[in-house]
Amino acid sequence: MPDSSRQESKTVFNKDEAGTVLPTIQNFYNYCSERRLMGTRCVKCGALMCPPRAICRKCLSDKFQWVEFEGHGKLLTYTIIHFPPTQFQALAPYAVGIVKLQEGPQLSTMIKNVKVEEIRIGMPLHVDYETAIPKEWPRWARYFFKPE
Amino acid sequence: MASPIASIVSAGISKFGVRDGIYGRELFAEAEKEAVDRCPNLDPQKDVQALFVGMMSESYEHQAHVAPLLLDWVGLLPKPAFRTEGACASSSVALRSALFSIASGIYDIVLVGGVEKMTHVSTTGVTEILAMASDFPFEQWHGISFPGIFGMMAVDHMHRYGTTEEQLAKVAVKNHEHGVLNAKAHFQKRITVSDVLSSQPVAWPLKLYDCCPRSDGASCIILTSPKIAKKFTDTPVNIIGSGHAQDTLSLAERENFSTMQVTKLASHQAYAMAKVTPQDIDVAEVHDCFTIAEIMAYEDLGFCKPGEGGKLIDEGQTHIGARIPINTSGGLKAKGHPVGATGVAQACEIFLQLTNQAGKRQVSDAKIGLTQNVGGAASTGLVHVYQRGD
């Protein structure tokens, strides 16, 4: 018998007619499930984006190439959440912050594998990925950051 | 001073707070009735041409399509009604839309209001509904709440400028002092700096008393073209400046987390249109959803230099009776924050102040007022400037 649950968890990339992976948010998370932090470079002006966008904010082009990011960055700001939205209640208190990737773009993220009192602005962090993928929409693998 | 865009001839506001068992539509009727009763020369069914109303979320009361509903509940079918959504700035967007309708000459007399009914939903449920105004795939999906977004702004401001938790606490203490003077406010209770500092952490460095409450409430103003305002009142309040700007939904995509670019841009537009400067403002209502937001508003509106917001509250310059009284109503912190109602509720307070009807919290000889309202992580921002029109 075919294993339908395995079938469902297979990553499906949206592609254009030529087979190129489209610069979509879902594809960004599909790459996360392959443990790759991917963004895009605007073909026209060279701007780097992570996460990807449909239209370049700088030059309004819609032509992009996927670029793999190293996943290293520095913490710009953070907070410790004690009163979370419903689905995150079991995790509280937890740390979230904004990371500036060494390539330039900035991402919001949870900060894990660190004591909250040891978190400092400017600390180097590195990307990692949750292995569990939710069963319902949006079936995205979360990235998070942790100390180098 | 500039020529007026439109005139407020009356204002009404429901009691804000935990209004157990009162529906949103009933709250709006309460606010609208007060505005109409304050304006005996107006026959609403004959004179009012349209309703503009702000409401953030259908999720609280499982109710969409509220423009016709609220219009019907104040007895004004079949006039046109417009509902605007800009998160916590929803009814300021309604106000600006109403200004356009009057400036265009299409309407002369409109109602502008806002409403939100929130307190029947649990704290975690409200947290989740409010979080919908942040970016889903890159903020909500990673457990980032609204207090979390403003917590990240606060950490940045403290790191960049040395702003302290005590300075944040003083904003809450001041707004609670003002709220004691406002019978419509959610809280009429003084608090101390140590109460704030010892309250439960929500999103460090923000604690429970750094956060505005979830509230039920509604607000309403009657807006006319300036040329007919005196038919309805001897003391209209003219809107002489309006500004509006947008920013990224997600905080991470900005260059500076210690400033609200939308407030800067919207205030520059509003000041230029009104031909005034920050020094001309006698009284202001600003968006203190969290204490850090009021500190940032001081700076972005030009009431002090960037980084000096903490010093302004330390020096007591924003209390009633001081140089620039801010949030005389109690602000979102003490008056409460039924999110869709807030923008127009700010306009109601400025109307009361500039018409000398603010009672115990009256700012003496106030002639020019300002409101600043932001939605989400300041992804929407509006600023309006008002002038006494008598």
Question: What's the SSE blueprint?
Answer:
The complex is a heterodimer of chains A (148) and B (390).
Chain A: H1 4-8, H2 25-33, E1 38-42, E2 48-49, E3 64-68, E4 72-81, E5 94-101, E6 106-111, E7 124-129, E8 143-147
Antiparallel strand pairs in A: 1-2, 1-3, 4-5, 4-7, 5-6, 7-8
Chain B: E1 6-13, H1 24-37, H2 44-47, E2 50-54, H3 66-73, E3 81-84, H4 90-103, E4 109-116, H5 123-131, H6 146-161, H7 165-179, H8 193-197, E5 201-204, E6 206-207, E7 217-224, E8 237-246, H9 261-274, E9 283-285, H10 291-300, H11 309-314, H12 331-334, H13 342-354, E10 368-375, E11 380-388
Parallel strand pairs in B: 2-3, 2-4, 9-10
Antiparallel strand pairs in B: 1-7, 1-8, 4-7, 5-6, 8-11, 10-11
Helix pairs in contact in B: 7-10
Structure notes:
The complex is a heterodimer of chains A (148) and B (390). Chain A is globular and about 50 Å long. Helix content of chain A is 9%, strand content 32%. The relative contact order of chain A is 0.16. Chain A has two domains: 13-68, no CATH class; 72-147, OB fold (Dihydrolipoamide Acetyltransferase, E2P), CATH 2.40.50. The termini of chain A are far apart. The model of chain A is unreliable at 1-8 (pLDDT under 50). Chain A is built from two helices and eight strands; from the N terminus they run H-H-E-E-E-E-E-E-E-E. In chain A, the strands form two sheets. Chain A has a five-stranded antiparallel beta sheet with strand order 6-5-4-7-8. By secondary structure, chain A is mainly beta. Chain B has a single domain (6-121, 213-388), classed as Thiolase/Chalcone synthase (Peroxisomal Thiolase, Chain A, domain 1, 3-Layer(aba) Sandwich), CATH 3.40.47. With 390 residues, chain B is α/β, with parallel strands linked by helices. Chain B has helices at 24-37, 44-47, 66-73, 90-103, 123-131, 146-161, 165-179, 193-197, 261-274, 291-300, 309-314, 331-334, 342-354; strands at 6-13, 50-54, 81-84, 109-116, 201-204, 206-207, 217-224, 237-246, 283-285, 368-375, 380-388. In chain B, the strands form two sheets. Chain B has a nine-stranded mixed beta sheet with strand order 3-2-4-7-1-8-11-10-9, with helices on both faces. A two-stranded antiparallel sheet of chain B has the order 5-6. Chains A and B meet through strand 4, strand 5 and strand 6 of A and helix 5, helix 6 and strand 5 of B.
